[in-house]
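// run 5 | inverse folding | seed 20
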């Protein structure tokens, strides 16, 4: 019988060695194989098999994303053509997708291989950007280059022209991404249980000035207008086009494109409610801690609650 294999997806810059060592020790004890992309072989022990970047998800039974939301999104994108369960381990600041703190990891791994978890299905945006097919689990954004004009783009939905935007940035998000760039631009918070696409302009100057919520069955087309300044195109925060002055972004909603492991959905939701409340407080982290009761401050120190950003 083939042994189970878990694929490791590492934060690109943070030191994740302590978490990796925990996983390697656990895997040896449970006779589980581990894999990582070949570019990260120098960051893991020799017992972890290096694989070409496109094969880690394909040849693994599940993925472990070690980092923050960006790492989690990268893991989901890597498995979009053959979705695998992704367990997020929190090594970062404020994350909305990751659930497991490092001290909880051994027990979480036991439950992962025992299939003792629930799966949270995530949609994505399938984007045709100037001829390239890409996917975004949070958002796709058109962003102005400072000092070089503004984003000027027309919006069409299912072939029908809706209007145009003239703004600093234009963000198209999934419900999961509604807590990210779209929220910062003034867009609504959308429940993850809702199927919708949100189009939000940041600092609008003319045209459509409010967020628009669209059906997942509608196709969105954004076309740069002649008066647009140079525009960068980001997918989940990654720049995939820079200084574009013409072109079309066509976006479709894709159901159940990603599988996120949830071990304690209720506690996860409670943590996220706390994180969202912290986003709207104009205080520094140390000031926030001083406002907490002594018992909660101790829990922060033990990393039982997410630290404020």
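// decoded
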């Amino acid at each position: 019988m083939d042994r189970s294999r878990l694929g490791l997806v590492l934060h690109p810059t943070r030191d994740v060695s302590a978490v990796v060592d925990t996983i390697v020790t656990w895997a040896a004890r449970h006779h589980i194989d581990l894999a990582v992309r070949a570019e990260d072989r120098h960051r893991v022990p020799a017992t972890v098999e290096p694989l070409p970047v496109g094969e880690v998800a394909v040849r693994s039974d599940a993925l472990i994303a070690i980092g923050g939301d960006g790492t989690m999104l990268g893991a989901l994108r890597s498995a979009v053509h053959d979705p695998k369960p992704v367990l997020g381990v929190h090594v970062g600041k404020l994350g909305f997708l990751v659930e497991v703190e490092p001290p909880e990891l051994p027990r979480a791994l036991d439950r992962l291989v025992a299939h003792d978890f629930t799966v949270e299905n995530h949609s994505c945006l399938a984007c045709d950007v100037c001829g390239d097919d890409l996917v975004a689990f949070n958002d796709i954004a058109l962003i102005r280059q400072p000092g070089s004009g503004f984003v000027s783009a027309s919006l069409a939905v299912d072939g029908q022209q809706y209007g145009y935007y003239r703004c600093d940035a234009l963000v198209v998000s999934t419900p999961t991404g509604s807590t990210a760039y779209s929220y910062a631009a003034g867009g609504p918070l959308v429940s993850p249980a809702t199927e919708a696409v949100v189009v939000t302009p940041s600092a609008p100057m003319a045209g459509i000035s409010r967020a628009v919520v669209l059906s997942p069955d509608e196709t969105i087309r954004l076309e740069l207008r002649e008066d647009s300044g140079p525009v960068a195109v980001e997918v989940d925060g990654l720049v995939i086009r820079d200084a574009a002055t013409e072109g079309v972004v066509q976006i479709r909603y894709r159901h159940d494109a990603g599988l996120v492991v949830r071990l304690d959905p209720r506690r996860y939701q409670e943590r996220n409610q706390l994180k969202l409340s912290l986003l709207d407080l104009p205080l520094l982290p140390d000031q926030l801690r001083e406002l907490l009761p002594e018992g909660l401050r101790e829990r922060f120190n033990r990393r039982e609650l997410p630290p404020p950003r």
